Amino acid sequence: MRLFAKWSVFVIFILSAIVAAIYIYSTEVSNKTFPLDIMSLRRISSSKKQLTNRGANTSSNRTYILFWDHPWSVPTEGFSEGNMGGCTGTYDRSKLPDAGAVVFHYSNLDGESMPWKHYRDPEQIFVFSSHESPSYVIHGEHRHAMNKFDDHFINWTMTYRTDSDVFAPYEQSKVMNKIIDEGGKWIDNKLAKKKKVAVANLNLSFPISFVSLQLWVVSNCALLRGSKMRMKYTDALVKAGLPVDRFGGCFNNKDEFKELSADDVEAYKFYLAFENAQYCKDYMTEKFWYNAIAHGRVPVVWGPSKEDVEKLAPTGSFIHTDDFKTPADLAKYLLYLDTNDTAYREYFKWVENPDEKTLELAKTYVLTGPHRLCKMMLSNRGRKSHPSASEFFYNETTNCISSQENVIK
Predict the structure, then answer these.
(1) d(CA 86, CA 62)
(2) Would you kindly state where each structural domain of the chain is located, as residue ranges?
(3) Is the pLDDT of residue 210 over 50?
(4) Which residues, 6 or more positions from 108, have their beta carbon under 8 angstroms from its beta carbon?
(5) Taking a C-beta distance cutoff of 8 angstroms, is the pair 159, 71 a contact?
(6) Which segment, 163-177, 246-260, 284-298, is predicted with the most confidence on average?
(7) Where are the transmembrane segments (predicted)?
């Protein structure tokens, strides 16, 4: 009888240990999904202890922003690592348990099998990122859906679109704010470098003896609908008598552009900020901000709607092709501006006398996308999830996503 009692106690002890082990294991699985790699497996036990010691480990007290990989796994692409206004940006995946946000470029899950097999804490914010237009993603990379980012995998979106959770424009504070700070001095310095070249036989209704040149650098000639359309529009401008210096892969003269002196590059009055997509929401790239504005050139815009440009650009800073019935009408207007320094300088009025809207834009552009993400993350902004990143990203105008070259109404 005594022996039976001892065995009963032993069996109860073993069963209790098994039940406890099962409970601990189930709790572990419910809190996070196990990683595939051994190093991450080892991290889970230590991370579990850290989470217990720290208490609630919300995104607001984690300061790492983990970029899962470089776009297309190309090391020279993507955001830089380092300080991001209170956060630290990194590509080091060992920081995954300590990341408040994990940013995925749309190409980053190409090599991953779903459902997600790596570590994920319920308090982490998973962010979908893109700086490419849907037109390019569909027709250039043949991605017609973002299935791996669907089913509530993503919490926030971070793109150039103003309806993103995190607005990440191409413009950065080093462009617009620096220009406004320098004001008239910046304008005088830039305009002093503009030159004119002789042109004759243009059959214009206004007197002209000299005209400035227009610059365009492009290497995407026919990949997309927008690529083809902008080439045709530029050809029409040249045919109408507008001198345009065209460089890049489309014209087999990349090296010639690199050989231009700094004075030559600064001499252009206008830049063709022609995007490779038409009417994609808010799609304004470095063509507008760096190639034109930063160099003191008036951007001549084709691609984004005029409404979108007015929303994102300084007041009165650009010329839009939609305001002209034909390329010939635009060419005539640009040639006129070259003869009238007062009229040309009006396009820089936003620098000397910025209106309220322009000043508000300048404040907006102080923060880059990752800096804005950090601020939102640390402020513990309410979390949510997107049922479908595909639905968000491809929710565009027919003009934007179509492959048909003719203009679609």
Answers:
(1) 10
(2) 57-168+368-409, 173-364
(3) no
(4) 68, 69, 71
(5) no
(6) 284-298
(7) 7-25
